[in-house]
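Hi everyone,

Forwarding the result from last night's run.
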Amino acid sequence: MFVIGIDPGKKGALAAIQDDGTITLHQLPDNALDTVNLLLDSYISKGACHIFLEKAQAMSIGGVRQGVSSMFNYGTGFGILLGIIAALKIPHTLVHPKTWCKEMHAGTTTGNAKERSLEAARRLYPNVQLVRPRCTKPDEGYVDALLIAGYGQRVLTGKKHE
């Protein structure tokens, strides 16, 4: 079985964790058809899967609220993902960012939410490459998608705070 975590942001990503512990990370494709093909070819055709999708919401970053246009685009992308998941009849769970962060950040000690996510991802998944191709720094989308998938795996197996 694949547990898939999706961070639907502008630089969104998809992380999949198999029962045997194999982890794969993908940048979310720019269009819906490529997203459908990624899910069908890489996961659905190979067995059961459950998707944990981060629930879209209005956000502020550093006290600055996001603009109307950016929130509309974010919500549109979230809606497209939700539509694809529903159309393909993939079991899924919407998860609030505070919910998965609370679980997955347990044991982290310093910094803001992004820094704690990176610390948690490195501690929990030390062998996973968190850098996108042709980049040098860990990618927020990869980090969040991986932690969302890890949260989903804990929910489905009933194991919490490892």
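The mean pLDDT is 86.

Cheers,
N.
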